[in-house]
Design a protein that fits this description.
292 residues, two-stranded antiparallel sheet, 64% helix, globular
């Protein structure tokens, strides 16, 4: 059993860490930006629900024309969608679990990148990635997607007070990235998303990027089967109106089968990580961390 657990953890580590670049998993530190007993630690540490939420959040974000333009103009998404998803996962892990200084450095790095980016929408409207309202859309859609994936596939009876606490904690990240407004409750997040709906669009470019997200593979047949389920679960997690805007990508497994497969995958990964050093909380004076 220990061998099987370690083998699964290694597969997951390979998905999220580029061994050729010397990358290694981010382990949990007591001196992180968030406390070990925070809701953020609980929600952000589940591999499968974060992947499902990440896919759903990306599909929701790209319905905003300026977010889509930023991806279209400044991202090598056609050749490196896996790299984009990997970098997002690493950012969440770094800002949630790594030393607070490492978390702040990751936030500063993103802000420096954003400061250089902008362009023009197809209709001639200029955009800047540093627009606080645009960053607010990215933050709220990502946060609510992570939380909803956790609720659906891990904690369906999660109390509203803890859901609100998650938004309140994650507001630290949104504010550090200069998003405005940043909701601190679930009701505030849902209201903010509704306020953006008149600005959202789905066109040929939206569908092209979404198709690449939905078709993402990572090379291993076993992992790719699970990835296909996760991509479908991410699409399924969208609000009905957003899923309808992505209608060309409907299909796949019947919903009950897909949700059951996603839940089984999540349970398997949780089982594999039960005995992992990644679940331990390391003190500030530890420098030689185990890798799995």
């Amino acid at each position: 059993m220990d061998f099987a657990r370690a083998a699964i953890r290694q597969r997951i580590s390979d998905v999220f860490n580029d061994a050729d670049k010397g990358e290694r998993p981010v382990l949990r530190r007591a001196d992180a930006l968030f406390a070990p007993d925070s809701v953020a630690w609980r929600v952000n540490g589940d591999v499968v629900t974060m992947m499902i939420g990440g896919v759903s959040g990306l599909l929701l974000q790209m319905l905003h024309p300026a977010v889509l333009a930023g991806v279209w103009d400044h991202s090598d998404f056609r050749a490196d969608m896996h790299g984009r998803l990997r970098r997002t996962a690493k950012f969440i892990a770094r800002t949630t679990y790594d030393h607070a200084d490492a978390g702040r450095a990751a936030l500063d790095r993103v802000n420096r990148i954003h400061a250089k980016l902008g362009g023009t929408l197809p209709d001639g409207t200029p955009y800047r990635v540093t627009d606080p309202a645009l960053l607010a859309w990215v933050h709220v859609t990502e946060t609510i997607s992570f939380l909803d994936a956790w609720i659906r596939y891990a904690e369906p009876t999660m109390p509203m007070a803890e859901q609100d606490a998650y938004f309140d904690e994650m507001a630290v990240i949104g504010q550090a990235l200069n998003a405005d407004p940043v909701p601190r409750t679930r009701a505030g997040a849902e209201a903010l998303i509704q306020s953006y709906r008149p600005r959202l669009r789905a066109d040929a470019r939206t569908h092209e990027v979404a198709a690449l997200v939905m078709a993402q593979t990572v090379g291993s047949p076993a992992i790719d089967i699970a990835a296909g389920v996760i991509m479908q679960a991410g699409l399924d997690l969208l609000p009905d109106w957003a899923r309808a805007m992505h209608a060309p990508h409907a299909g796949g497994l019947p919903r009950p089968v897909m949700r059951g497969a996603a839940r089984n995958t999540a349970n398997l990964i949780r089982w594999a990580f039960e005995s992992s050093p990644n679940r331990a909380v390391w003190s500030g004076d530890v420098t030689d961390f185990p890798t799995r």
